[in-house]
Known about the structure:
Largest sheet: 2 strands, antiparallel
Distance between the termini: 77 Å
Number of helices: 10
Strand order of the largest sheet: 1-2
Strand content: under 5%
Structural class: mainly alpha
Shape: flat
Helix content: 55-70%
Radius of gyration: 24 Å
Order of helices and strands: HHHHHEEHHHHH
Amino acid sequence: xxxxxxxxxxxxxxxxxxxxxxxxxxxxxxxxxxxxxxxxxxxxxxxxxxxxxxxxxxxxxxxxxxxxxxxxxxxxxxxxxxxxxxxxxxxxxxxxxxxxxxxxxxxxxxxxxxxxxxxxxxxxxxxxxxxxxxxxxxxxxxxxxxxxxxxxxxxxxxxxxxxxxxxxxxxxxxxxxxxxxxxxxxxxxxxxxxxxxxxxxxxxxxxxxxxxxxxxxxxxxxxxxxxxxxxxxxxxxxxxxxxxxxxxxxxxxxxxxxxxxxxxxxxxxxxxxxxxxxxxxx
Length: 282
């Protein structure tokens, strides 16, 4: 008889289900794109080219304070687009900016970046000194990454996936790239659903996860089964798309239409970007 662990909250189970739910939400959630917000009302072409201009501007700025202005503008735009501040901050800070911060922390110390001392402390008899150049460089990098990620997330949240792909083709992105992105987009959702269903089926038949040895056998079998099924599903998804007339060109029921609001928005963004670059030069 297979022994089982007690019915304590299973960290692995929660992690698997949460990861699958996050992938499904991130790949197919267009709830925010349907809101009647400011960015949602703009033409996708004007929105994409202005966000690209903001990204390029952030890449050229060398002052964290100016990049902070761009980040504050992202927060204001998210609020004007009816995106919850908490939801937006979680989507933009949970992984990439915090991971970048963990990378740049060693660069703040004198043994990596020499310079004038900003702060010093002792740990187990070892002297650690934070230098001014190291601290400024770390702040600049984290600010640049946070602003760039916020712009990318804000664009994806307020624009439908099909519209983004259509804009890519209008701007001359190769068709094979758009086709690959479309396939990955559709396949990730199916893969997350498949993993979630397999794990739910195991829990429903066993009740709780079995002992380590038996659990390893179950996991190994399901990895092999999932690999086989996902390979087959990927082919079926592609054939289903072809049978419905997909040729690599995204199609929309309604076409794009530039309005006065879009032109004013684009002009304001370009003027603001030029002003930031001018302040950077001074």
